[in-house]
Amino acid sequence: MIASSSAALAGVLPRPLLGRLVRSVYPRLEPELGRLAEFVPAGGTALDVGGWFGPWTQRLLARADRVVTVEADPEMAALLARTFPRARVIAAAASDTTGTASFAATAVSRLAGTSTVSAGGATVPCVRLDDLDLTDVRFLKLDIEGHELPALRGAAQTVRRDEPAVLLELEARHQPIEPVISLLESWGYRGSVLHGGRWIPLRAFDLEGHQRDHVGELDRGFAGRLLRPEPRYVNSVLFLPEN
C-alpha cells in the first residue's frame, strides 16, 4: 500500500512540484540536514554529490559561497540546473576514473533517491572530483548508492588538501563499509552518526548490526517514512578531521 502510494505520488505530481515537496520535508527523513549548521562551515565551496531533488543543495546555497552539485541522472541534473541557477551543476557520475557508465532510473527510484550506476541504463559520463578545479572545499556530501568509495578515491587530493567535513551514505547492503571507513581514517578523519538526537562515535556504534535490524524500515517507502520517521534506519555518517 505504501509502496503503491509512493509510485502514485511519483507518477502524478509534476517533477518540479515533487522536488519542492521533497526539499521541504526531507529533514524529517534525514535529520542531519536539519542540523547542517553544526558541521558545515560557512563560506568556501560545498560539494553535493548525488544531488537528487536538491535538499542539500538548497540549504548549502544559504551557507556556502559556492555550491557544486554532481548528479549522474541526466533528467535530475537538468532539473537541478533549472531550479538552482546559482549552483554549478555537473551531469556526471563521480568516480575514480573518467569515461562513461550506465545509469538506470525509474519514476519510483527517482522519488526514493535510489537510482544508481547500473548495467542496462543510459550512458552517462564519469568525473573525478579532483578534476573539477575546486578551491577551498569546506564540505563534501556523498550519497550515491554504494559508489562512495570510488568517488572518494577520485577526490583524494581535494579532501587531503582542504580537509572538508565529509557526510556520506554508508550501507552494508550496498558495499563493504570497512574500506570506506579505513580510507577516511587513514586521511585523519573520525566518523560519527546521529542517533537518538545525539552524535555517537562511529567506532562505538554497530552500524552494520543496526542496519541489519532496521532494514525493514525501508520497505515503508518514502511516503511511509515521511508519515512515521521513527524508528529510523541510520545510513549517514559524518567524518571530521581530527586536527
From TrEMBL:
This is Methyltransferase FkbM domain-containing protein. It holds the Pfam family Methyltransf_21. Gene3D superfamilies: Vaccinia Virus protein VP39. InterPro entries: FkbM_mtfrase (IPR006342), SAM-dependent_MTase (IPR052514), SAM-dependent_MTases_sf (IPR029063). Residues 59-190 form the Methyltransferase FkbM domain.
